[in-house]
Amino acid sequence: MPKIVQAVNPPTLARPVGYSHGWEVQGGKILYLAGQVAFDKDSKVVGKGDIVRQFRQICENLKAVLASRAGQMNDIVKLNIFVLSKADYQAHGKEIGAVYREYFGKHYPAMTLVEVKGLYDEDQGCLLEIEGVAILG
């Protein structure tokens, strides 16, 4: 069965902006994307103190995992974003949005953003962590 994915945005729910309420998937293989932080290949944090640079590095990391299985960013159907500061994320929303569009274009997975008390790699300067699910053809 070929891969079929379709955004699910019922008219009875609020119009989603920058995300989808859900995704229906038929066929394909599931790739679970572990929580990624802004580490480069040498385990060094990219963009200490800069949530936009860290977001970009995380997108690069997600892209690398997907590419290793012949996937691309628009194969992602679910993202969970964990931030230390929702206020910092919101304050840089336009810049983060611009980076997002560089990697995803107009593809909007089902998304969750949660402000958390701490991240495992917070002590190394990580400000956010993103995990996801992709469906590969």
Helix content: 25-40%
Strand line-up of the largest beta sheet: 3-6-4-5
Overall number of strands: 6
CATH fold-level name: 60s Ribosomal Protein L30, Chain: A
The tally of structural domains comes to 1
Q: From the alpha carbons, calculate the radius of gyration and give it in angstroms.
A: 15 Å
Descriptive notes:
By secondary structure, this protein is an alpha+beta fold. It has one domain (4-136): 60s Ribosomal Protein L30, Chain: A. 26% of the residues lie in helices and 30% in strands. The chain contains three helices and six strands; from the N terminus they run βββαβααββ. The N and C termini lie close together (10 Å). The model has no long low-confidence stretch (mean pLDDT 97).
Quick description:
This protein is an alpha+beta fold and 137 residues long. 26% of the residues lie in helices and 30% in strands.
Please tag this protein with its features:
60s Ribosomal Protein L30, Chain: A; alpha+beta; globular; 4-stranded mixed sheet; two-stranded antiparallel ribbon; 137 residues
What is the element layout, followed by pairings?
Layout: E1 4-8, E2 22-26, E3 29-36, H1 51-67, E4 76-83, H2 86-91, H3 93-104, E5 110-115, E6 128-136
Parallel strand pairs: 4-5
Antiparallel strand pairs: 1-2, 3-6, 4-6
